[in-house]
Amino acid sequence: MTTPMNVSDLAQVLFVSALQASDHPSPDQVRMIIEGRLRARHADLSDCAALVAQEAGDHPEAYASRMRWALGEAVRVRPSISFVS
Questions:
Q1: Which distant-in-sequence residues (6+ apart) come within 8 Å of 78 by Cβ?
Q2: Cβ-contact 73, 30 below 8 angstroms
Q3: Containing domain of residue 37, as a range?
Q4: Confidence of residue 84 (pLDDT cuts 50, 70, 90)
Q5: Domain total for the chain?
Q6: Closest CA to 77 of 23, 28, 9
Q7: How many CB atoms lie within 10 A of CB 7?
């Protein structure tokens, strides 16, 4: 069964990854990072949401730009993301 993921979900997954905007990742790299994390966590996004919230509180000055980047990348790769649960 395929689990649909919205852009916000995918952005949270990317946000908490080690991948950085300064790495200038290709769409394939972004997709692989997101899909790998989804497989490892069985599409449970609760830990991602908690980490995103913690980062927003700990580093509000960096949060907005990182989330904008993560959202932009998620929009770019969403059509090619597939996760089967």
A1: 5, 7, 10
A2: yes
A3: 25-75
A4: very low
A5: 1
A6: 28
A7: 17
Residue 62 included in any domain? yes
Confidence category of residue 60, pLDDT binned at 50, 70, 90: very high
pLDDT higher at 25 or 37: 25
User: Is residue 38 in a domain?
Assistant: yes
Q: Say which residue the tokens 């990182």 belong to.
A: 66
Q: Locate tokens 């990742």: which residue? A: 25
pLDDT at 85 over 60: no
Q: Report in angstroms the alpha-carbon separations of 26 from 11, 19, 38.
A: 15, 11, 19
Tokens standing for residue 69: 């980047």
Q: Give domain status of residue 60, yes or no.
A: yes
Whole-angstrom Cα distance, residue 30 to residue 32?
5
The verdict on residue 17 lying in a domain is no
